[in-house]
Every structure is written in C-alpha cells, then in structure tokens.
Design a protein that fits this description.
Length: 308
C-alpha cells in the first residue's frame, strides 16, 4: 500500500478509535430508543435508524425500540372516515378508533420497522405491550376544569413485566414494541403514549440509557428567542423547566425525568432528522442533543458520551 493510500484511510481509523471509550463503557448495557417524529416517515432516515440500531447490537449493546405512530394513525382514521377529536391535548379514542390504532401500530409501523432491521440479519422481533402482559394500563381520565373526563381507550401505565423483552435480549434479539397495553380491570386494549411507555420500560429494564428521537435539536434554552440547545441538565433543573415547555415536548421530557429518577443513568432527546443521530450521540466525543442526568450525577469529562 502506498503512503498516500495509507494516509487517506487514516481518518477512518481515527473515527473508530474515538468510539473506543464509548464502546467499552456501553458494552452489555441496555439502551431503550423511542422511535418517532420525522425519522418515522422519511425513507432515508428510517433506513439510517435501522442501521444505527443494528450497529448498536453488533457493538455489544442491547437495544430495545419503542414506537408510536401518530401521523399514520391519523391518516388511517381519515381514510376510514373516523373523525379525530382532541381533549386536553389527547386524541379521544373510541373502540372503533382503537381497532385502527392497534392495526396501524402492530400491523403497519411495527412490521415495517422489523423488516428494515431484519435486512441486516435475523435480529428484530415485533411485539406489543399486550404480549406477555408487558405493559398493563388503566383508563386515563384527564382533568378538565376540575372534572375527570372520559376520552375513551387512552391508557395510563400501571405495571410493566419485562420478562418477554429480557428473554429476547438474552437471545441476542432486538425487541420492537408497539405502545399499546391491556387493562387487568376491564380487559380492554388501550393506546399508551409512546414516550411514556419508552421511559417506563427503560426504568423497568434497568437500562443505562433512554434515547428519544424528536423533530428538534434538543431542549432549547430560551425558545423562541434563541435556538441554543441545553446540552446537559439534572433532573431537578428539568423539573423546574417543565411548566414552560411546549406541549409536544412535555411527555418526552417527563419521560426523561421519570427514567433518570428510576435508575436510568442518562436520558437523551436527540434530533431524529439528522441521519445516524443515535451513533453520533453514543459514540462520539461531541454528541448531539440534550442529556438529562440524575441529580447526584458527577460532572465527569464529557459526562456523557454524548454531551454537546
């Protein structure tokens, strides 16, 4: 090999070496990834997401993917002539609408994601929160003007059983989980917020990391006056910010808060519009997005493999 050819290959080696400390740190650890936003719709981003998750698996991590499917659900409800009504920011989910939700999540979004992952080997296994009582829920009744309101089949998580997921991880598989659950009280199936489900699963699995893909760069310091992203904050700092966050960010950041207060070492909100954002966050010194850590977390150098 000529000196010139050796030289042009060198940056590849430097990139791999930069990943070494993070490979060592994350080896054998569980990471729960909430798949959503534009990454769920754009074909190139979907393919890059699948590559990232398979890379994590081959790099010695144990990825678990949790997904919702708001845009796909809305499109299918429209197609079937079912009108979506919203109360307290939540979709009123009739039994008929719940049939559509279940069909879209488990039969469309999950199937496509499993297919993308399995282009790289027999790795992904699709399941829903109903399977093996993985997620149990009760009916969620939001308070509107001081009164609990019935919004149909929208669920609030009451219990998590990680047995089936853990068995898949122990077998080297990648679980892909749709955020629907069954109630132990009335045996109905409920639609559960996917951000909330991912956070609850991360805590129950003793995951090292929760990663939430979204359509913004992270949590902004002073939106809309500035687009500076907060790279790192503690659980208490996040809790103080929650009342002022935009409605779309609230379940994501509440999920991050729940995760780090229940044993997860770091929770990150990252920009799913950036190809390979998961790898950039986990395996580079720069990292991207916003990372939430427990209050007691020491400020280690680049604490975070992933701090911006």
């Amino acid at each position: 090999m000529s000196a010139a050819r050796k030289h042009t290959a060198l940056p590849k080696a430097q990139i791999l070496i930069e990943a070494l400390p993070w490979l060592t740190r994350h080896n054998g650890k569980t990471v729960v990834i909430k798949f959503g936003g534009n990454a769920m719709i754009d074909e190139e981003l979907k393919a890059a997401f699948a590559q990232d998750v398979v890379f994590l698996r081959h790099a010695g991590l144990k990825p678990v993917v949790v997904h919702g499917g708001g845009p796909q659900i809305s499109a299918q409800l429209d197609k079937q002539g079912l009108v979506s009504e919203f109360k307290a920011g939540l979709r009123v989910t009739t039994p008929e609408a719940m049939d559509v939700v279940r069909m879209v999540l488990a039969g469309q979004v999950q199937r496509e994601l499993v297919g993308l992952l399995n282009q790289h080997g027999p790795l992904a296994v699709g399941m829903t929160g109903e399977d093996a009582h993985t997620i149990t829920a009760t009916q969620h009744r939001p308070m509107i003007d001081g009164t609990a309101v019935d919004i149909g089949r929208v669920g609030e998580i009451t219990a998590i059983d990680t047995g089936a997921i853990q068995a898949l991880l122990d077998d080297g598989r990648i679980p892909v989980i749709s955020s629907i659950a069954r109630s132990a009280e009335d045996n109905h199936v409920y639609n559960v917020n996917a951000d909330t489900a991912a956070a609850a699963l991360a805590a129950a699995l003793d995951a090292e990391t929760l990663m939430v893909l979204t359509d913004v760069e992270g949590l902004y310091e002073d939106w809309p006056n500035s687009d500076d992203v907060i790279s790192r904050l503690t659980a208490t700092e996040l809790e103080k910010l929650l009342p002022d966050l935009s409605s779309g960010m609230v379940p994501k950041m509440q999920g991050c808060l729940h995760a780090v207060r229940n044993g997860v070492e770091t929770a990150r909100v990252i920009d799913g519009r950036v190809q390979h954002s998961i790898l950039l966050e986990i395996f580079t010194d720069e990292g991207i997005g916003t990372m939430v850590v427990p209050d007691a977390a020491p400020a280690a150098p680049h604490d975070a493999e992933g701090e911006s």
